[in-house]
Structures are given as structure tokens and as C-alpha cells.
């Protein structure tokens, strides 16, 4: 299977680099994928308000963004393997220590530590996968692996929370990170390998102009706010419709597994129909599923809509990251785009918590409905400028 992945992404040692990149991204995304469970744990077990819980999650994401940007700037100077080791150590220590946090201040410190490590690993994974011959397919395959692990977590972690309270959640994150550590052995050893994993196609320009790049990553910011405003509250939406606590984890797990079909489809199609068309289709359908999740008429509507929302997410993201990788032959816009996605994760929990507190969940859908056309218009314009640059180049 790994050998086939190596052939798919186009380089002899692709299977090794792919495994390392996918593992780094998986560890980096554990906090994001468990955001609904973290939100519920902070509010229902530790007694934080919705605003306080959203603030803690935003601090973790802020630390993640800082770690990601620092790591991206260090890739040409520090061996990427060293960055991976630093990142996983900080993430594991931060998760484990969070399980012992007894105050708001200590929890904030430990989540920030975990976020910083996750940010470093995020840049490591993005830097590796962005330089493979077919980054869209590499991202899709990496999302499949990440989603499988996330779905298993969402299934069993609620039981750990029930048995061990907050400690069960955060220790689970630390243990899963440790299990994935051996895959980081395949991270490139030399600094120059981090920016030279594959021969760049002659069809690619060196870099788009700053306007196009900034415009595109601004669109990623809006998409990220939209996605994570929904994801941060999706567990509580299930509770609002009367789904029992024990069932929500399994529903999210099953929805994530079904959502993986989106990445399977993206890996199969690759860029056969370009990138902008799949992005538009996925995001438009996701708005519909978001509405049905926020205003479900029954638990069954919520279950199926949540699965559809996950499917659209997994289908769109490989194309978004693949477009970012295509903007620059050295992966600089891909790294910047990754950082902007994290910035969106910083803003989303606090913003959505405030909006829900002020105008209930109807305000959450209004946010999604406003950001969707803005982001799509940005992607259309950035894609047009990129295609024009390719023709002129």
C-alpha cells in the first residue's frame, strides 16, 4: 500500500516522505479534531463558561499559528527532523499536563504549549506534502489517514472522558501522539531536503505575485472561520436536538468515517476537473448541510447532515491546499496558507461563542452564509489571476 502511495505522488521515496508528512499532520490536528469534545469538557466538566472555553481554544490555536510560522521560517536553516522532534515533544507534554490542570491559568498555559508543538508539526507536514509531484492527491491521502484516526478518537475518547473526566481526554491525545511518533523517523534529515523533495514541474511558475497570493490566503482565512465556527459547536448542536452524550461521540466518529469518502473521491479525481470547480461544489453543499445541522428537525437529520458536512470538508481541503501549493514552486504560499487556516481556527471559537451568546444559533448560520460568497468570489478571482500568470509565463 505504501509503495502504491509512493508511485501515486510521483517520487521513489514518496512513500517514506508521505508517511512522515501524514503523521506530522495527524499529530498536529489532534487538538482541532477533538475541539467539540474539548469544548464540552471545559464547559460541562470543568465548569468554564462558553466564552472562557472559546477563549482557551483560541489561545491554543494562536500558539499553533505562532509555532507554524516560526517553523516555516526555520525550514531552510534547521533540519526538518529536529523541528519534528521539538514539535512532538511540546505537543505530548502539553496534552499530558492539561490533564492535571486545576485552574483556568494552568489550563491556558498547557494548551498553549500543546498548540505551539502542533503548529511546528503542521508546518513540517505541509512542507513535505506540498513538494510532492501531486500535492492534491498527497493531501487527500493524508486526510484519509488523519480522518481514520480522528474517527476512532471520537468514538472511544468520550468513554475515557466519562471514566476519567478531563484527564481521560488529554491523556488520550498524548498517548495517540506517542503512538504516531515512529512514523516521524522518515522525516528528511537534511535542511535542504525539506525544500527539495521532488523535481518541480516545468509547467509551474516560480511564484505568483503578492496580490494573488495574499488574496488566496485571505479566502482561506474566511473558509477556516466558517468551518471551525461550525466544528467547534457541532457537539453542542447534537445535544440541542436531544442526542445523548454517550451517542454524540459515535455519531461524530461515523460522520468522519463517511466524510473520508470525500478525500477518497478527491484522491481519485485529482485535478481532472481542475481545482476551482470541486471547491465551489463542496462549499455550496456544505452550507446546506450546515443549515440542517444548526436547525435539525430531528436527530436523524442532524446525523446525516453532520456526515454530509464532513464529506464536503474532506473533499474541499485537498483542493484548497493543492491550489496553495501550485502558487509557488518553493511552497512558500502553501506554508502561508497553512498559517492562515490556523488563524481562522484562532478566531472561530471565540467569535462563534460570542455570536451564539448574542443571537443564538441563527447568528452562527448568518456568519456562514456571509462568509461563503465572499470566500468563493476571492477564490474565483485568485484562480483567474493565477491562470493568467501561467499563460503569460
Describe this structure in words.
With about 400 residues, the protein is an all-alpha fold. It has one domain (about 1-390): MFS general substrate transporter like domains (Growth Hormone, Chain: A, Up-down Bundle). It has 14 helices and no strands. The chain has helices at about 1-10, 15-35, 35-45, 50-75, 80-100, 105-130, 135-165, 165-180, 210-230, 235-240, 245-270, 275-295, 300-325, 330-390. The longest helix is centred in the last third of the chain and has 61 residues, at about 330-390. The chain is globular, with a radius of gyration of 20 Å. The two termini are about 40 Å apart.
Tell me the domain tally: 1
How would you classify the helix and strand content by structural class? mainly alpha
Q: Any guess at the CATH architecture?
A: Up-down Bundle
Here the CATH topology equals Growth Hormone, Chain: A
* Name of the CATH first level: Mainly Alpha
